[in-house]
Amino acid sequence: MKRYLAVSGLFLAVACAPPDGELARSYSGAAGSIVDSGSFGAAAMNNHLVMTGQRSHVIDLAKRFAGEVDSTVTFAFDSAVLDAAARDTLRRQAHWIRQFPEVRFRVYGHTDAVGPSPYNKALGLRRAQAVVGYLVGQGIGRDRLEALASFGETRPLIVTQGRERRNRRTVTEVSGFVASHPIVMDGKYAEVVYREYVESATSGSSVSLEAQTAGGGGGG
């Protein structure tokens, strides 16, 4: 009898012992976790973060814009005139922006390090204004665009005291949502951020509004 009880106890101990590896996860983990490839629960967590204000829709949309469109155009030395390459880039920006009428944008102007700082700051602003003017000419509402006071030469991409075209640039960025838009008023931010990018049937205007550079002390 004692031998029988000992064998039975050993059997129960083995049967009740927690299984190893993936089988253990199937018993102790959430349903479906055994086939999880790394994104299990991601959708629910994203919804939770959005609803509690822990995730910014503006940041998500800004990343999407920067990933799908070239957000930068460059300029010749001491110039705020948009060349052919800049206009091509801005037409692509305008096409993307037209898909999201609820979204506002800012344009930041930059220069290289050549020239006095006050002049460069004014030059960077003229560049930003030239970009905004061109986007307006492409059918983007002026109330959705802002030419921010420029950074001048203070934020170079390439650290140099000489002329550098890559530093003579503007950057277009998502800044927020149009407060009066019906979708935004309904709080449907996720509908905006995750909307599929669809080719518009509306062709943009070919009107070009190029800003002319002002004379002065010369800068980058």
UniProtKB/TrEMBL annotation:
Classification via InterPro entries: Bact_OuterMem_StrucFunc (IPR050330), OMP_bac (IPR006664), OmpA-like (IPR006665), OmpA-like_sf (IPR036737)
Record has Transferase as a keyword: no
Keyword terms, alphabetized: Cell outer membrane, Membrane
OmpA-like domain mapped to chain residues: 62-178
Matches recorded under Pfam families: OmpA (PF00691)
Predominant place of localization: membrane
SUPFAM superfamilies: OmpA-like
Transmembrane stretches, start-end: none
Compartments (UniProt record): Cell outer membrane
Superkingdom classification of source: Bacteria
PANTHER family (alphabetical): LIPOPROTEIN YIAD-RELATED, STATOR ELEMENT OF FLAGELLAR MOTOR COMPLEX
Name used for this protein in its record: OmpA family protein
Lineage of the organism: Bacteria, Pseudomonadati, Pseudomonadota, Alphaproteobacteria, Rhodobacterales
